Amino acid sequence: MMLMAVVRLHAQQTVAKTCAVKPASFALKSRDLPVWELGGGVLFTAGMTVDADGAPNAYGPRNKGLDYTANARGAQGWAALVTNKQGNPVLQKRGPYRGFYVSTTSLEQHDIKDQANPKRYVDARTVPYIALPRDFAERFGITLGDVVAVFNEANGRSAYAIFADVGPRGRIGEGSIALAKALGMPADPRRSQAFGHITYLIFPSSGAAGWTRITPARIRSTATKLHHQWILATTFCYVNPQ
Prior knowledge:
Elements: H1 2-7, E1 19-21, E2 24-27, E3 32-38, E4 41-51, E5 73-74, E6 77-78, E7 129-133, H2 134-139, E8 147-152, E9 158-167, E10 174-176, H3 177-182, E11 193-202, H4 216-233, E12 237-239
Parallel strand pairs: 1-12, 4-10, 7-9
Antiparallel strand pairs: 2-3, 3-4, 4-11, 5-6, 7-10, 8-9, 8-11
């Protein structure tokens, strides 16, 4: 069980000091999700769909992007695209992705001021990131830019990522193309997903709010340090599944 592997201690092991942790329950549309708050981290296991948001070729007219254009819409209209005053998606007018829409992420690169510049957003092709529902993030004190350790239980692969996009209410488990590749899973936003064997360890208040640029190297450096601190803090802890 990846939760046990992450915590580095089996429940039956005898130690001088233990701290059994019972999960909180977070309601999703289809089930209740067990969520552990342990050693300053927030831990849960879910599946993972693949997110293209933020990539300059994520969406385009007639489904010519990496993902289906319909996936850029939400209940209130376009949710993942820059739109004009009439509410229509803005097309890129120059560059290698001329004719594609400008795809957004909730987290933005602070050094790019033009909202219609695709480089303002966190590129799903190159930056490992996750999306979370707003109500989940608020409940557990997680903010955009917080870093994450992600584990693929199916193959033992792991990667560091950043919370860069707000996803729909009632669903959880969404990661960028770059994260899917780092975890050794298929990375097609139209078809690929993992079912229930991805463990997420989020570090609240670790955020990139002050970063000028969000890069994989900066994410990895920050998350590695926090992950190692977390392992030390939870050496004598175990997860109680009840």
